[in-house]
Design a protein that fits this description.
Strand order of the largest sheet: 2-3-1-4
CATH architecture of the largest domain: 2-Layer Sandwich
Shape: globular
Oligomer: single chain
CATH class of the largest domain: Alpha Beta
Helix content: 40-55%
Order of helices and strands: HEHEEHHE
Largest sheet: 4 strands, antiparallel
CATH topology of the largest domain: Alpha-Beta Plaits
Strand content: 15-25%
Length: 137
């Protein structure tokens, strides 16, 4: 009788352990699939054909709307980071496809006005680290 109880308890523990592993595996697969759907894209933003070099950047046509659009995209989680080098802006997007990135960039009024132009590139991280903004002086 005692051996039967021990076997039932042991068998129940094994079943509970297997169920727990299956639940964790399913959660891991679901989380992995959601992450796998999103890719990173580098968007280079340059001055366009309608950039007026006689005006300051904040005086350009649709510049404020451009800034507001980038802030909105960042707040929604589409922009992972942004930076500027030389006279080029760089925005790293998290999206499902280049088409999705293009759709979001094409809706920026400064792009349709020709104040800025952009190019989208696959962004493949080969060394992950931490990027922090440099403290302003």
């Amino acid at each position: 009788m005692r051996n039967s109880i021990v076997l039932v308890v042991a068998f129940s523990a094994i079943l509970l352990g297997i169920s727990g592993l299956q639940a964790r595996a399913q959660t891991s697969v679901t989380a992995g699939a959601a992450k796998a759907e999103l890719e990173l894209f580098a968007v280079e933003i340059k001055v366009g054909p309608n950039w007026d070099s006689s005006k300051a950047p904040n005086e350009q046509v649709f510049f404020r709307e451009h800034s507001a659009n980038l802030k909105r995209l960042r707040d929604e989680g589409h922009i992972v980071m942004g930076a500027r080098y030389s006279d080029i802006g760089l925005v790293v997007f998290s999206a499902r496809s280049k088409g999705e990135v293009r759709g979001r960039m094409d809706s920026d009024p400064s792009m349709t006005a020709g104040t800025f132009v952009y190019e989208v590139h696959a962004f493949n991280v080969f060394y992950s680290g931490m990027v922090q903004a440099r403290p302003s002086n």
